[in-house]
């Protein structure tokens, strides 16, 4: 058996993409999201990464009441899984090709200020929250996270006592995150999430993951995930390279080629099997707390 630390599984439950039409198992209501979080924890996830949706339309939402209900339901269940809230919404826009060149927020949603993006984190104080270190082309849209926004958000998150998960989508994002840590804008306790195969970010290959890992500050804790069919190969790649892993319906709708996942626990169960078949130990929530949370 390997002597490497136990492998932490994060489960990204629902995301912001319009995916329910492709797989009706994608949770939308606060109750569905919380129930799937609890089931994912029972299947082996130590962390659940949470976006919220409008339960009537299934579309992405930033409504505080939905975050509050999800967090309350998980905590009331006495499930010891670590709660990770997103701060990603309110950052996507398109740029039309016709004049005048005015930016257009995605799905008619307003772009959000740094303080608006972290308001639910400050109030609910989850264990972890995401911080997207990425300004990039995201498919046909633009994902906007300038460094001055990141610094302002990081200040509010740190003041709330919440651990930051730095989501990096390409080599330059890893360099920026490392710079923000070196200059004191982000604490050294931050956890890195390497987001692979997102259009148009870094490809999900072992060599690219290894190079992104090399660019991180020495001793950094990190995880990685792949989109779609790259999800389960990335579980193996990240585990072998010494990292942790993320799976879930936010990133992939299938448990096997042509077979839709029944729920998030279905994906976590497969990831746990891959990790254990490699000879590695699966982390418990207590392992994850000891390894990741700021002390």
TrEMBL record:
Gene3D superfamilies to which the protein is assigned, alphabetical: Aldolase class I
Keyword list, A-Z: Metal-binding, Transferase, Zinc
Cofactor: Zn(2+)
Phylogenetic lineage: Bacteria, Pseudomonadati, Pseudomonadota, Betaproteobacteria, Burkholderiales
The organism's place on the tree of life at top rank: Bacteria
Protein known as: 3-keto-5-aminohexanoate cleavage protein
Organism encoding this protein: Variovorax ureilyticus
Keyword Transferase: yes
């Amino acid at each position: 058996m390997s002597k490497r630390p136990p492998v932490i599984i994060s489960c990204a439950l629902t995301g912001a993409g319009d995916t329910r039409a492709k797989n009706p198992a994608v949770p939308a209501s606060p109750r569905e999201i919380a129930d799937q979080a609890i089931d994912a924890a029972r299947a082996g996830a130590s962390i659940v990464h949470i976006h919220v949706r409008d339960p009537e339309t299934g579309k992405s939402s930033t409504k505080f009441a939905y975050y509050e209900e999800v967090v309350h339901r998980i905590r009331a269940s006495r499930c010891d899984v670590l709660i990770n809230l997103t701060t990603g919404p309110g950052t996507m826009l398109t740029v039309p090709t016709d004049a005048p060149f005015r930016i257009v927020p995605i799905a008619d949603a307003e772009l959000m200020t740094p303080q608006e993006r972290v308001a639910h984190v400050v109030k609910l104080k989850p264990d972890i929250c995401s911080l997207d270190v990425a300004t990039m082309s995201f498919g046909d849209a633009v994902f906007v996270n300038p460094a001055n926004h990141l610094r302002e958000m990081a200040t509010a998150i740190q003041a709330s006592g919440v651990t930051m998960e730095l989501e990096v989508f390409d080599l330059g994002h890893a360099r920026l995150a490392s710079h923000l840590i070196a200059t004191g804008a982000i604490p050294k306790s931050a956890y890195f999430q390497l987001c692979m195969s997102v259009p148009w970010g870094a490809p999900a290959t072992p060599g690219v993951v290894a190079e992104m890992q090399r660019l991180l500050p020495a001793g950094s804790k990190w995880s990685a995930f792949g989109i779609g069919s790259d999800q389960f190969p990335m579980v193996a790649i990240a585990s072998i390279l010494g990292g942790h892993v993320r799976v879930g319906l936010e990133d992939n709708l299938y448990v096997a080629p042509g077979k839709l996942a029944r729920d998030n626990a279905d994906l976590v169960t497969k990831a746990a099997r891959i990790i254990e078949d490699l000879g590695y130990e699966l982390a418990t929530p207590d392992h994850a707390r000891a390894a990741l949370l700021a002390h």
